[in-house]
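Hey, quick one: can you model this chain's 3D structure?
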Amino acid sequence: MITSSSNSQIKNIISLLKKSGERKRRGLFVIEGIRMFSEIPSERIDKIYVSESFVKNNMDILDGHSYEIVSDRVFEQMSDTKTPQGIMATVKMLSYRLEDIIAGDNPLVVMLENIQDPGNLGTIIRSSEGAGVNGIIMSKDTVDIYNPKTIRSTMGALFRMPFVYAENFQEVLNSLNCRGFNTCSACLDGAVDYCTIDYRGATAIIIGNEGNGLTRDTIENSKSGIKIPMSGGLESLNAAVSTAIIAYEARRQRNM
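Sure thing. Here's the predicted structure for all 256 residues.
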């Protein structure tokens, strides 16, 4: 049993939880909790850590797995949550190609430009899966998808929703235009009601930064500018809410 927070394995876990650069360097990220653990494809598990209390009450979950036991006190120190469930794992990063996302008949993709809130990104991934989105393309300045808060917000969808970071966002956007995608930027200026757009063909729904929205280049390079009508004094909606509303309209049309 690991009983000291100065143990090298514990230090490595904490570093992976806190530092995006360390995650990239090692090709690993950390998940916590029973629900997320149950979602991990077995071939992606690197190492499992459980608290001494967890072992006593959850042997069925650990059946067939090797694991490292950590004292309850140390587990609380290494956890990123306020109420640790007693199980975490280091997981090998996922890898997709852009072609994996945009290939096929009439794909529906979500493009994210400079999304900064980890919870927003996680919720977008989760709702995109529910709406039947084929994959997510993110600008390189979007928050790290392996941020612990993002991972928790996905509720397991992280392992099922293909994603890529685009080194050159405008280049990818232009490529989709050339491939016949209807590229739809969610914006306020000069935009049409999102319900008037035909999403049944190849479509990219483009969502911008929570505070500043999409860049002018992205709006100008898109084929359509769309907006969600709002009552009252609201000027905009949360990025994750906006994505869900538009993606589910696309799903409705595609299922007609």
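One thing worth noting: The chain has a mean pLDDT of 95.
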